[in-house]
Amino acid sequence: MSFLSIRNLSVRLKKGQPLLRRVSLDVSAGEVRGLVGESGAGKSMIGKAVLGILPPSIEVTEGEILLDGVDLLRLPPALRRKRIGALAALIPQDPLTALNPSHRIGPQITDRLVDILGWTRANADARARELLSEVQIPDPDRVLRSYPHELSGGMRQRILIASAFAAEPKLIVADEPTTALDVTVQKQILKLIAGMQTRHGTALLFVTHDLGVVSKVCQKLSVLYAGMVVEDTSVADFFAAPRHAYSAALLAATPKYTDPAAGLQPVPEAVIAAVQAEVAAFDRRAAHG
Amino acid sequence: MPFLRILFVRLLTTAITLAGVAVIVFFVIRVVPGNPIAMMLPPGATEEDIARLSALYGLDKPMITQFGIWIAGVMQGDFGTSITTRQPVLNLVLGRLPATLELSIMALVMAMILGGAAALTGTRFRGGRTEGAIDVANGMALSVPDFLWGLVLILLFGVLMPVFHISGRVTPSLDLPFTTNFYLFESLIRLRFDLWADLVAHMFMPALALAIPLAAIIGQLLKQSLKETMNLDYVTLARTKGYGETRVILREALRNAALPTLTLVGVQFTFLIGGTVIIERLFSYEGLGNMAIDAVINRDLPLIQGIVILFAVIFTGVNLIVDLLYTVLNPRLRHG
Ligand SMILES: Nc1ncnc2c1ncn2[C@@H]1O[C@H](COP(=O)(O)OP(=O)(O)OP(=O)(O)O)[C@@H](O)[C@H]1O
Ligand SMILES: [Mg+2]
């Protein structure tokens, strides 16, 4: 039984254009699933739907999001929030904007523990210190008392990772957690997330552009195009032989895996046309009920 | 230390501003027609009488000399003598200042409570009817000036439902044990809640009249700022932690959203203090503003000068406090 199971999730702009088209995917306990696709494919939208943070301009039209067996979309809002807060967490994309500038670091790590899960402050503080050492932040006591602007981007991303793991969630959504960072820091952060994930046995939904990252940290992979899952496969199978033409083109477009000397290849127009035809066919079927 | 640097720069500019105000007020009120001496004397006084009295008050000397004498006095804390009451200007002005300060601060507190509540409610129920209703109310509050609100309030709570006093600062028959003129403050310190209630019943309407337009400005700005803040990443992250909408607004967004509003509230508060002049007159409230109007009517030149200087000191002081508060509330500036 998967810890997270998304079934036929469709999402659209209110009374407008569809953004997710019957998306289904599963993440088992302790498993890492990559979510790839070009910009605007709907990767972040899936993460937001799981975490209950879809913008108010967007509505879910069908489907289920089962978190540990319970459909989040059927829960009343207050219960849904509590369940998500207790079982899941987000590692955001941009560490520079994801910490509240007017709160110190300490409370930003421990807030959920104290306010939502009812820990004592002393326990929560001890936990925060322990987590900061785990993400290899020197002098945790000083950092806990700091404000975000006093720390570097890499440091802040480590803090956000620590904060995501604070309540021992069973599922973490990481939305391109390294793209906003320096190239030199990216590798360390990626290693850190992968290490933490393994140690804590957390299921991870990993949104990325980078197939290199997928090959390193993921076991499963969903390829998304225009809000449609075009391929759902194991990472090993994907790199051996992608089944969908669009996936194959995406793989070929990433030069590291074919010819390191070549530049980034665009996905061929014929492939785009084919997958767009699939999307159009899907929308026609949907329109006819 | 940006805090000290800001303080120093502000003190310097404050000094320059005050010097400018002193020059302008001194010469302007002497260019405007109207002779204070002539107004003091009964009709039919001779030119000779006027000249003699003028000499007594030093008004016969060239304007520059008069200015020199006045400024020299001011430097030593002597603002001259009021022509109509023959009392030292400084005593008169400082005696009235507490009444106006209490009124202004009461109005500011009311404006912050009303405006803050409007902004928070509008943000909590944004996109719905409630927000629309709040926007309409804000627009109405803004399109009517404070003194008209004063008249409306007098009609409502002074005439139709007489629950508040419409004139004065305190019921005259009451025995006041106060040693300072900060009646409202002192009544609390002395635990005289009976007097406190009487003072509030007098102050309520003028303060509310002053507060309504400012409340609308605070409501609009803060709501705008809150709504923008609510879309920021750290607010979204807080939502995933399990916090409800109200908690998220108060805990994550309010403080950051309040910062940009604060500076503007400072500027608007000085307008509010300016508004006390007419409002105090309307409600016969014995403050500085009411005294200013009497002083102008009587052409009491030294008193006008004293009042204007004091208002200028208050204005610059308010701006200074706002700037310092801004650095205190914004951790980025404090440590920068
Ligand atoms: N708040 C919003 N209101 C309306 N449309 C939105 C909103 N957020 C995203 N979209 C649209 O939804 C679609 C999917 O967006 P999403 O952010 O999930 O893409 P993504 O795959 O994460 O892309 P990227 O790689 O650039 O992050 C896009 O077409 C985008 O324009
Ligand atoms: Mg995205």
State the gist of this model.
The complex is a heterodimer of chains A (289) and B (336). With 289 residues, chain A is of the alpha/beta class.
Distance between the termini of chain A: 30 Å
Shape designation of chain B: globular
**What's the number of helices of chain A?**
11
Q: What does the average pLDDT of chain B come to?
A: 90
SS field, number of helical segments of chain B: 14
Structural class of chain B: mainly alpha
Write out key terms for the chains shown:
heterodimer; A: 289 residues; six-stranded mixed sheet; 22% strand; globular; B: 0% strand; binds adenosine-5'-triphosphate; binds magnesium ion
Indicate the topology:
The complex is a heterodimer of chains A (289) and B (336).
Chain A: E1 4-13, E2 18-27, E3 32-36, H1 43-51, E4 58-67, E5 70-71, H2 77-87, E6 88-91, H3 105-116, H4 121-134, H5 140-145, H6 153-165, E7 171-175, H7 183-200, E8 203-207, H8 211-217, E9 220-225, E10 228-234, H9 235-240, H10 245-253, H11 269-287
Parallel strand pairs in A: 3-8, 3-9, 6-7, 7-8
Antiparallel strand pairs in A: 1-2, 1-4, 4-5, 9-10
Helix pairs in contact in A: 3-4, 3-6, 4-6, 6-7
Chain B: H1 2-31, H2 36-40, H3 47-56, H4 63-75, H5 89-124, H6 129-143, H7 146-160, H8 183-189, H9 193-229, H10 233-240, H11 245-282, H12 288-297, H13 301-329, H14 331-335
Helix pairs in contact in B: 1-13, 5-6, 5-9, 5-11, 5-13, 6-9, 7-9, 7-11, 8-9, 9-11, 10-11, 11-12, 11-13, 12-13
Structure description:
The complex is a heterodimer of chains A (289) and B (336). Helices cover 43% and strands 22% of the residues of chain A. Chain A is of the alpha/beta class. Chain B has helices spanning 2-31, 36-40, 47-56, 63-75, 89-124, 129-143, 146-160, 183-189, 193-229, 233-240, 245-282, 288-297, 301-329, 331-335. The A-B interface holds A 51-53, 56, 78, 81-82, 84-86, 88-90, 92-94, 97-102, 111-112, 115-116, 147, 149-150, 160 and B 127, 232-234, 236-244, 247, 252, 255-256, 329-332, 335. Bound molecules: adenosine-5'-triphosphate (ATP) and magnesium ion.
